[in-house]
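In this supplementary section we document a worked example of the pipeline. Step one takes a protein sequence of length 167 as its only input; no multiple sequence alignment statistics are reported here. Step two produces a three-dimensional model, which step three serialises into structure tokens for compact storage. The input and output of this example are shown verbatim.
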Amino acid sequence: MLALKIIDIRDFTNKLFIGEVFDKFCLTEATITTFNTFTIDGRLQQDFFDTDTLNKITEYGRTHSLWKDIRPFCWSVIRGKRTPLGFKIVLHLSRSGMEAAMNNTDTGISSDQISGLFLNLQFKNNSLLCTTGISLRTFSMNKRPEQLWDDTILRFLSQNQILFEKM
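The serialised model returned by step three reads:
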């Protein structure tokens, strides 16, 4: 697990809520506290979609909404003259993104054994923390997948000019 403190919160939140930097991630959950607390469960409700749309969505094993689809709702809650009291957003890579990230490297375990690669974003007390996480389907002492995910996030943040310090 990697814990990072975001240095330029304004730049980061612009990239998160207005820009497209995080759009390829899926949303696990989001909680935003302003004058109320708003909670979004990122799981797709399959009964809502017609058959063709559902087939397109689930073709790659997707079970959650993409951040790009939920981002405008979150932005509408946050924008305004006052800073939110806080937010917690949990993003994860799609199944195809996870397979691409893990299959091109020697992790010592197959991508089928990985349930998820997560990016947790938490803003409170005017501080923004970013932590990584990995969920495995089976117990393993192998830390290589976790290290690769951490390295991937560090590269992602650097490539997108997001300033951070390790904690």
